[in-house]
Amino acid sequence: MSGEWPVEPGDYVIGDPSSPIAVCTLSDEELMRELEARLDRRAYAILGVTRTRNIGVEKLVRNVVSNPNIAYLVLAGRDSEEPVAPVIVELGRSGLGRDGSLVVGGRPIRLRNLSPEEAEAFRRRVRVIDMSGVRDPEALVEALGRLGPA
Fold first, then answer.
1. CA atoms lying within 13 Å on the CB side of residue 101
2. How far, in Å, are 23, 31, 48, 110 from residue 34 at the CA level?
3. In this predicted model, what pLDDT tens digit does every residue of 43-81 receive, in sequence order?
4. Which end of the chain is more exposed for a tag (fewer CB within 10 A), N or C?
């Protein structure tokens, strides 16, 4: 990894940048703080919240793909009123269309600040583990333990 990481500012904590796991608690700040207190920092590279379907997702993806060690993105917790998890899941599944958008729930979502290369790197390299709605810290700690060494 060259340069400063993470590359985008945000509401997150850094664990061990060599970890293969990133955790996004969606808009659930309470869960993020609870996991931060319970998890060994070696269990994740980055742990944070993402509240918006466009700029928030763009920053999350950019931070994840700029760390070549990250292979998993775990989504958990309470989502925003305009849900973010389906956007991330669809981006991981299908990538971006030629116009820089993807369709979620019949509605196009434009990710204008995400390059096609970043979106493709995310789709190819990162496995999205969708546990959105799960707020039980013990279940999440157990799930993270199955993904990689702590």
1. 9
2. 13, 5, 11, 32
3. 999 999 999 999 999 999 999 999 999 999 999 999 999
4. N
